[in-house]
Amino acid sequence: MNEEDLNEAMRDEMVRSSPPPSMDPAGALDQARRVRKRRRATWAGLAVVPLVAGVVAAPTAIAHFTDSRSVGQVVAGSPSTTPSSAPSSAPKSVAPPAAISTVVPSTRKTNDPWPEGQTDRTAKAGPRAARSVTLMEDLSSSVPAGFTAPNLKYPDGRAMRSPQSQYASNDGEPDYWEYQASIPVQKDNRVGQLFVQSTTPDSKRATAPCKLAQSFWGGTGSCTVLDVDGKKVAVVTTKGRDSFDQWAAYRHDDGTVVFLAQVKKTDLPNRQPLAQPVFTPSQLAELVTSDKFHINS
């Protein structure tokens, strides 16, 4: 018999000599209860592991989010409600209010020198003298068909075509200017004259159209107010005993006043007066409102 056979014989003997298990019901029930308790303890231990891990990790998570959210927000799981700082809008640039002019018109005083280096009221050179020359040319270009504006002269050699620019202010009045032009008008060897005067704003109050018209060279006559595209123009007609037979007067909104006059006769010897006026009253009224005669400075 070898060693393996000996061991097998000994195991058989032990089995045959072991007493059978007890069949006591109470003992079996007690054994079953102990097994169930061990199983519950095992499951309880497994459940404690993640809970402990969560409790240990919670302070770390709270510390991590404290800089941006409150602890209550982290626990509740709600997003941060802290509003982000809105960039302040830069103040808009506001344009300063337009400066109000404080320039007061110069007022003429006794013994004041004449303006702009003049030796008397008349501007004989410079921009002001040039304005009256332009005014004369504009008047010449306004002569209707059938009439001409020739370069005629008086017997003493003076030209009948005459421009003039003059300082018009008197003592106590603000500075203002008058620009004048006179031209001869001819038709069929008959000669008459046209005259225009444009006065810059003089700070005087506006008057009724006819009162304005009758202030021209102290003229008298019947006055009629005509409407020219909504503009009120006064036309005065004399009986031929004044320097002019007829003239129109108009005051622009800025205060510039324009007079336009006509006469059928002249002082030229051996020249008959015109047989008819150069302009009708309506034509005279329309022309006096023209921008080409409006000189406001």
Write structural notes for this entry.
The protein is α+β, with helices and mostly antiparallel strands and 297 residues long. It has two domains: 37-78; 116-293, no CATH class. 30% of the residues lie in helices and 18% in strands. The chain has helices at 3-17, 25-65, 71-76, 127-141, 209-213, 281-288; strands at 162-167, 177-187, 190-199, 222-228, 231-237, 246-251, 257-263. It is globular and about 50 Å long.
Descriptive key words:
single chain, transmembrane, membrane, 297 residues, transmembrane helix
**Residues in helices, as a percent range:** 25-40%
Q: By helix and strand content, what is the structural category? A: alpha+beta
Q: Give the low-pLDDT segments.
A: 13-26, 39-91, 97-104
Spatial sequence of strands, sheet with the most strands:
1-2-3-7-6-5-4
**What fraction of the residues are assigned to beta strands by DSSP?**
15-25%
Number of strand elements:
7
What characteristic shape results from the CA principal axes? globular
Number of helices: 6
Element-level helix/strand string: HHHHEEEHEEEEH
Rg is 60 Å
Mean pLDDT: 76
